[in-house]
Design goal:
about 35% strand; about 20% helix; about 150 residues
Amino acid sequence: MAGKCALLCRRWDELFFIYRGVDLLDLYLDMGLLEVCLMKISIPLKPLSVNVCFQGRRFKTPAYKQYDRNLDHMLMPFKKNIIKSEWYELRYTFYLKNYGMTDCDNCVKALADALVRNGFLTDDRRIKRFTVEKFKADIDGIEVEILPYLMEN
């Protein structure tokens, strides 16, 4: 099939396949042969656990306020490539120096809120699926892949 398929444009945000005048993107997605990633973001920042985000009755701690400012600044270059979807799938990868002591699901909430605040997601209630991985690393960092959620059950 690849010999009969002409790839007209290949960028992370534009995939157009033509096969004898027929758009094959939906067909390939349905068959599981192609995955569209709306965006992959790499952030050289230590993930912040939800345990240190709030004090008292959900008031933001100074550490959380600083984390928000840092994330806003680091996400700015990616804002020009935002593509909206009705539902999202997110893949979080955390690279941690303090690997053994970090509960990786606690790192998700503050990051998801920042993605909504910066316009990458319409609302974190629109996330249908997310996966979280953590790896031991010499330098803390975060990677987030934002994909459209394609499977309806």
